[in-house]
Design brief:
It is built from 15 helices and no strands. It has 298 residues and is mainly α.
């Protein structure tokens, strides 16, 4: 009998491993990393750094996502949103999932060390450990501030992209880190508001479970205000120009609208609308950063 990781494995099984990687999350991670690469230099990004950097970061993110699902198999099994994932549904066994995650992680490190640079490899590895081990194994069950502290790992992709091109950490890369770091709590807490009963059932101390929905809605609003201010920093530091500023203000106003509506009204659908908008918001914000970078301002 062939191994589940065999190249000859049937296509439906490979789809299960694909789902272990949380492809939508990885896509957003790689997108922000690519923007970091392109912003790191005024000219053309070296093709090798762009391709191998993107691939190495993607594999590292996929490895962390697979480990996350492996560790959260029990929790996922009792939550309606996640019970049909490959591991809790029994379509992939734990040992195969672990082997798959390790393989992805090793490939990520080999590519980044040999084809990009050591700093990017080290920072990617620390991000993987931060998400898959520190956040998933400890923080998520230890404190309602789990997503705030653990958000540092998720905010690293643009820094990784920057270092893949320059080989060093730049203050402007840290601004991109700050934006994603502040974006993470209102993004994830909006989902937690919608799924608070499931988190309570799974005994996960998410903020709506430990402090209640009104307090969580207030925190979403306060963090969204802080995020709005943080997104003005690229313009204030002359990292970006007027085109980005207008986009950031427009997108931020939209996020504030949803955060205020969620705070004032108790409509169940608003939480998921806010969550959905937050994803489009981050993609739009980084798109404005990217386009603005290539505008020839006088």
């Amino acid at each position: 009998m062939s191994s589940p990781l065999s190249i000859a494995a049937p296509l439906p099984l490979w789809r299960e491993y694909y789902e272990l990687c949380k492809p939508r999350v990885v896509a957003l991670i790689v997108f922000t990393a690519m923007v970091g690469m392109l912003l790191a230099t005024p000219g053309m990004v070296p093709v090798s750094a762009f391709l191998f950097g993107s691939l190495g970061i993607a594999l590292g993110a996929a490895s962390g996502a697979a480990i996350n699902q492996l560790v959260e198999k029990r929790i996922d099994a009792v939550m309606a949103r996640t019970m049909n994932r490959p591991l809790p549904a029994g379509r992939v066994d734990s040992l195969s999932a672990l082997a798959f995650a390790v393989l992805l992680g090793v490939l990520s490190m080999l590519i980044l060390v040999t084809q990009v640079n050591t700093l990017t490899a080290v920072l990617t590895f620390l991000s993987m450990i931060g998400y898959a081990v520190v956040y998933t194994l400890y923080l998520k069950r230890a404190t309602p501030q789990n997503i705030v502290i653990g958000g540092a790992a998720g905010a690293m992709p643009p820094v990784l992209g920057w270092t893949a091109v320059t080989g060093q950490v730049d203050p402007h890369a840290l601004l991109l880190f700050l934006i994603i770091f502040v974006w993470t709590p209102p993004h994830f807490w909006a989902l937690a508001v919608n799924r608070h009963r499931e988190y309570a059932k799974a005994d996960v101390p998410m903020l709506p479970v430990t402090h209640g929905l009104p307090f969580t809605r207030l925190q979403i609003l306060l963090y969204t205000i802080l995020l709005f201010l943080a997104t003005l920093l690229p313009f204030a530091t002359r990292m970006s120009g007027l085109f980005y500023l207008l986009g950031a203000v427009a997108l931020g106003t939209g996020f504030l609208y949803y955060a205020i509506a969620l705070y004032r009204r108790k409509e169940p659908r608003l939480a998921m609308k806010t969550f959905g908008y937050s994803i489009l918001y981050l993609m739009g914000l980084f798109s404005f950063l990217l386009v603005d970078h290539y505008i020839p301002y006088p």
